[in-house]
From TrEMBL:
It comes from the Bacteria. Belongs to the DSD1 family. This is D-threonine aldolase. It comes from Achromobacter anxifer. SUPFAM superfamilies: PLP-binding barrel. Its EC number is 4.1.2.42. InterPro entries: Ala_racemase_N, D-amino_acid_metab_enzyme, D-ser_dehydrat-like_dom, D-ser_dehydrat-like_sf, PLP-binding_barrel. Keywords: Lyase. GO terms for molecular function: D-threonine aldolase activity.
Amino acid sequence: MNPFLETLLDTPLDDTYRGIPPGEPALPLRAVASRRWQPRNGDMALPVLTLDEAAFAHNVERIFQYARSHGAALAPHAKTPMSPQIVQRLLDAGAWGGTVANLQQAAVLLRAGVSRLMLGNEIGGAASGARLGKLLAAYPDARLLAFADSAATVRSLAAAAAQAGRPVEVLVEVGGGRAGARDDAAVTAILDAIREQDGKLALAGVATYEGAVASSDAALTATNIAALMERAARAFRQVRALAPHSPLVFTAGGSAFFDQVTQAAKPWLAEDGNAQLVLRSGAIFFHDHGTYQRALQAMDARAGFQVDGQARNAATDFRPALRLWGEVLSRPEPGLAICGFGMRDVSYDQDLPAPLAAFRDGAPLAGWDAQARVTRLNDQHAFLAIAPDSALAPGDVIEFGISHPCTCLDRWRVFFGLDADGRVQSAYRTFFG
């Protein structure tokens, strides 16, 4: 095992970490299962964020099955969990590599032994380029593919190559709505700038991100993605003309529209014959009870989740794996319960958390009000609208689903994996900086 991962498993967990009961003697992260904690019993400090291990493993199997059926590879975006343990599990499952959004994330994964990365973002200026070069010099055997959407970015990557003492591989980014070259002329300017660098840079392919051109209108989104993919295809042909014999990469695909990317790219990648489609989906492994559930329902409406030529139901094939557990603190008035978590504990940029079940002394609570809903969050408080006659009382534990894993996991230094009985069987360190 990589030394960094080995050391990580010996991280002492004590009550400075959310979830660990106050006064609990510190124990190594690798030994957390020995406590047999169950969040619903209230024997962990609440709130606590957990991962349904079976659901996560199921999601891994499903998205890899999809990728294999389309001849695609996966470089999961590590920004979602920023957990080297999770990334290693995905590599063990067959991932091509990992994707990161910045140099701090790259440094973490390189230290954890990941040998192939995409830097799925522009690097910035020359100073950032020099920092990238120092990082690459420290890991001479690692392969990193970096995005470039302008001549200025190309110059920054050339500075990285000079610092690293070896070429940097470049993916020309085509985009809309966010970063990325906007037209064929911009792509030509990027390629001209790369050729001016006298071998410091190597053309590796083309990148895009289709989610940046999405909107609330499904038809408009489909039109925008199709147009983006047409521009990406033209950019790919420009790159191929300059690298006629090199194996190239085309990369795209978040967790909401990867089907449209796959269907659009497969014909021209097959025609090329020497290129790999790499999907960068990250949130799909965790799924959720909100924004990605709606995204997969929309995918099903267009029959997009095709595996081995058969349409599958993505909205039911993938399972929400993350849960937040919170305790009822107060019933100050009829129709209101106050729970002990807030904006510091859970995502709220897409949807508020969704109550799923309630427990008293570890047993399911009847009459708790399945129609309950979170109406707002403070820093440390959640406001739960309930029926006036709800059985909820202070001390009851509520299980919540979340929306948008990427902005939930980053609030936690450690989250805990649960087995089929709801007992803690694992713990995952995160490194968001």
